[in-house]
Hints:
Elements: H1 14-17, E1 26-30, E2 33-37, H2 42-53, E3 56-57, H3 58-84, H4 93-96, H5 108-119, H6 123-131, H7 136-163, H8 170-177, H9 180-209, E4 212-215, E5 218-221, H10 225-252, H11 256-276, H12 283-299, H13 306-331, E6 334-335, E7 344-345, E8 349-350, H14 351-358, H15 366-374, H16 386-411, H17 423-437, H18 442-476, H19 486-491, H20 494-509, H21 513-541, H22 550-580, H23 590-624
Antiparallel strand pairs: 1-2, 3-6, 4-5, 7-8
Amino acid sequence: MVTRKLKFPAGICPRISLRLCIGTPIRETCGKDEGFFFAPGIGEWQSFLERKGNHMNTLVIVLIAAVALVAAYALYGRWLAKKWGIDPKAQTPAVKYNDGKDYVPTNGWTVFSHQFSSIAGAGPVTGAIQAAAFGWLPVLLWVLIGGAFFGAVTDFGALYASVKNEGKSMGMLIEKYIGKLGRKLFLLFCWLFCLIVIAAFADMVAGTFNAYTVADGVTQLADAAKTNGAAGMVSIMFMVFAVVFGLVQKKLNLSGWKEAVVGVLCIAASFAVGMNCPLVLDKTAWSYITFVYIFFAAVLPMWLLKQPRDYMTTFMFIGMIAGAVIGLVVAHPTMNLPVFTGFNNEKLGTMFPILFVTVACGAVSGFHSLVSSGTSSKTVENEKDMLKVGYGAMVLESLLAVLALCVAGAAAAADGTPAAGTPFQIFSRGVAGFFQMFGVPSYAATVFMTMCVSALALTSLDAVARIARMSFQELFSVDDMAHAEPWRKLLCNTYFSTVLTLVLGYVLTQIGYSNIWPLFGSANQLLSALVLITLCVFLKVTGRSNKMLFPPLIIMLCVTFTALVQRLMAMVSAIRNAAAVTIPAGETTWGAVFIANGLQLIIAVLLIVLGATIVVNSMRSYVASKHNSEAKA
């Protein structure tokens, strides 16, 4: 036993100071009280963190996150751009192939707005709030580290590779650097992934607008029935006025302040109608309406519905983020969520890998690469804009995830109990409360925020539905479609492929977003790993450094395959347990058991097999490729 006499400055409690001592048993001598004790272990450290972090100022958390993300952009992002090479004088695909439709040279900040509005879907809000079950500190650390060194690097890399390859999509890049088989497998993987996204986000939207609740087995109007119904009606009118806006824009070719004025007027008209004519419907009805909208968004021309709707939505996002930031600055509420709850959570599972796939879009997302290489790369007019579009939009989304975490922390009870409701509802109520501080009426603030959070999901839904339809068509298309087999023409038909995709997506909504979210997160992160492999090959054959991609690549492969295997085992266990007992009459059916577990099991197996096959195929291509074998673009 080692004895050590300790002296403490006046006013410092020995027991608090000795919390910092770990290892050797220490003898405390302080005044007349003496005794032996052992330094704290993990449990005591957890208690210490809880006491110090449970009541931290949320404004401090936001400021720390903002400084860290800005520093990452200024230092690491610019280092990547310098390492890979940016040529402001180079002719980008948008300039070289300007066709006024897909390839359109566009101002850098406009492309940045498109990129951010496309990738900032429901993920950063839902993922951060759900993962807070492990404590706010693990979520914050993963969002900051993942956003700066994983997600932003993947997004920027995908945009960079596409611009350097004539604006090719990720599927075409994989065909070039991995092979035709890799491209086909990747397209099938993307289609399955999009089905999961459609199911998860559509269920969120329908649940947000749902005006009914179940209490003691009885369905009744919820307290927020009018608010939810008004937000739903606003959403419908938003789609109607988006079409009107698109037609006006097509006819008059508005730009600048004129375009902004018309857009704002359409937003105001949507809210005026929706708030005065709420549409009170149940979740099933809203689910049908959501899928009808997704269908039209997937098949109508971009200029008619999606582009004007995205433009109008951008103004709402600006208002939402501004309200959250100003509210946190003015009110600077306390973070009431626990700082750390342990490595195991009864509902979610183990922190590794669940935390890393639950946060999803706020830290890293494979879906972002589809946007970077699919649309943004075709509109960048100067290579110097790639950094702010690819890297900058991602770190801004990470900041949105931090804001969502802080709003949820402020909404939690003083004892750390999370606020009731879905992540969307928690976030919308929290920011609506900030608006009310500035004199905005409660009803207007709540309707606005409910509409904003649903718009987060809807902007992802319409983009994903379109990507799913095109992936399915590309999967079965051939060069000479005019003389293709009848079955191939049917599968490649725009309407047939869209309906088939949405029907399967609707079936998956029966699982519920909370159950399917881990599968979505795993598939999303695995998609990012597959993109990173392709980028490694691209950088190698063009003689550029790719060493910085290996740490995120290896980590994401370990995380995603572990999560998928865990999910597969959980589904098998659930089906086995259901088969071992008699299902009470009226409680559930074998059909419900199959939908909730069997479908997830099938998709999980397909994702594992496809992912493993693509990884092996990609690794072979990487080993076979030669350094600097392709002239730098």
